Amino acid sequence: MSDVQVSGAGERRRRRAGGGGRGRVRGARRWLAVVFLLPALVLLGALVGYPIVFSVVRSLFDASGDGFVGLDNYGAMFSDEGIRTALRNNVVWVVVAPTVSTALGLVFAVLTERIRWGTAFKLVVFMPMAISMLAAGIIFRLVYDQAPERGVANAVWVGVHDTFADPAPFPGAKPRPRAGLKPSGGGAFTTGSAVRAGAPVLLPLVAVQPDDLRGARAAAVAQPQPGKVTGTAWLDFTRGGGGRPNVIDGNEKALAGLRVEAVRGGRVVASATTAADGSFALPAGQADGARLRLPAADFAEAYRGVDWLGPALVTPAIIGSYVWMWAGFAMVLIAAGLAGVPRELLEAARVDGAGEWQVFRRITVPLLAPVLVVVLVTLMINVLKIFDLVYIIAPGSSIRSANVLALQLFQSSFGTDVDEGLGSAIAVFLLLLVLPVMYVNLRRLRKERRR
């Protein structure tokens, strides 16, 4: 055998030996990776995999867990009115809350780029993220309180309203029984008979608040006047007792500022306002033979603001508290993306004559599209599991109107009417709702890696 053949055979043996060694090393590394990943896989299976499998299986059984019902729990889920309300509210949450939060975050990030105190502003906007959902819920439960002296929202709203609308002079007041004034609809009161010139009309009222009588003068008996229909409105109540009903006693107070209307055929033909002593006078040409009416505006209750937590507004109000918390999160992420936008593109567009709105709409927003998608998808996933804000802010009278799927899951599983089968069905349904959003997010991440 030649030297060349011998050397070739030796080389082949060395390669085979080396290849086997590399295979053994590769196999050892694979087992080492499995050993290191095993604790994480066990935790993942125990905390994620097992609950998912258990929930799917449990959703196929009845409330006791003994009877197999198949898909009946899923059918009951869509036939229950409360759960349908929760599903509608979840749609509103998913559409409105992430969109508004992302839009506000974009506006804040762009506007704070050019101001000197932009960092301080971003810090203030981001601060709510440091507050737990529980604390935020308690804060906004007070903010939305119906009483203006406690609720900030209604304090501001009432202040604006009262600036442009005159308050009623005597809210809550009403005629004295058997005084000849009858309810005429909408909170107004009308005399039972027509009035005549020369015969003063008495309009006794009760239930006037003491604060509305500060500085009031004593009532005076109206005197007949030629060509006039006269009368007096007063508080027919004597402190300490002793007064006579439907008679003006010496120490009874006048009700100044009341509007008195003469009504004929359902139409107001004349009107007057009571003076400081409670007296009024109407022209006899229009008022003689008409009936006198005290309109509802004289007695309307003081404006108490908006029922933010009532059935009609409770969901938008809670979404507002969520936006307050998460707009800062969106702003920080978008500001980080904005820092990577090439400034020369923006300056080139301005040099070419583009306005700030055009630069924002046609350059800034398209370049920030990947970041905006990340923020939007993250908030959508977060919104699908919203629970604490709704549970804390919504009062008992409005909890059904504000219901969401996560809250319904809690109530069905641990509430008064416990049905773990229905609760598990809701949990599986929530998981199915989250999966498409997660799939979109994973596809986006893969595209980013390929770039």
TrEMBL record:
CDD domains, per the entry: TM_PBP2 (cd06261)
Q: Which GO terms describe its biological process?
A: transmembrane transport
Recite the UniProt keywords alphabetically: Cell membrane, Membrane, Transmembrane, Transmembrane helix, Transport
Q: Where in the cell is it found?
A: Cell membrane
Q: Which InterPro entries match?
A: MetI-like (IPR000515), MetI-like_sf (IPR035906), UgpAE/MalFG_permease (IPR050809)
Ranges for region Disordered: 1-24
Tell me which residues make up the ABC transmembrane type-1 domain: 87-441
GO CC terms of this entry: plasma membrane
What membrane topology does this protein have? Multi-pass membrane protein
Which residue spans traverse the membrane? 31-53, 91-111, 123-144, 323-342, 363-384, 422-442
- Amino acid composition bias (Basic residues), ranges on this chain: 12-24
Tell me where it mainly resides.
membrane
State the similarity comment. Belongs to the binding-protein-dependent transport system permease family.
Protein name in the entry: ABC transporter permease
The major lineage groups are: Bacteria, Bacillati, Actinomycetota, Actinomycetes, Kitasatosporales
